[in-house]
Amino acid sequence: MPRPRKPPLQLTFQERLYLGKYRLNVLSKYAALRADIVLRASRGQSNYEIAKQLGVSRNTVRNWRARFEKMRMKGLETRPIPGRPRKSLTLPNPAPMPNIGAAIGEPHWRG
Predict the structure, then answer these.
(1) How many Cβ atoms are within 10 Å of 36's Cβ, its own excluded?
(2) DSSP H helical segments within 43-103, as ranges?
(3) How far is the C-alpha of 46 from the C-alpha of 108, rounded, in Å?
(4) pLDDT value at residue 88
(5) What is the mean pLDDT of residues 2-10?
(6) What is the separation, in whole angstroms, between the first and last Cα of the chain?
(7) pTM over the 0.90 mark
């Protein structure tokens, strides 16, 4: 027996307007994907249809839909990744430059 379809997400006018603009203006493709998932779910599409059209797994659709239902717009924000922070990619301070002038017989200062 097939599972019953989830009812469409109920969005307020402000949420629908914000998500529509956000999806088009956001720099992160993942944030735009989240907004697209929620908008499609509000139109009554099934998780399977949304996943197939957007090229993501059904679990991804299910997770974002559930987060939105639970926390509304706050649920679509990117959360910090748990665990140990990444190591900094900056290089340590370089060693001081040797006095090249001393190698050719010039003093290191002029006065």
Answers:
(1) 19
(2) 47-54, 58-71, 100-103
(3) 76
(4) 72
(5) 81
(6) 94
(7) no
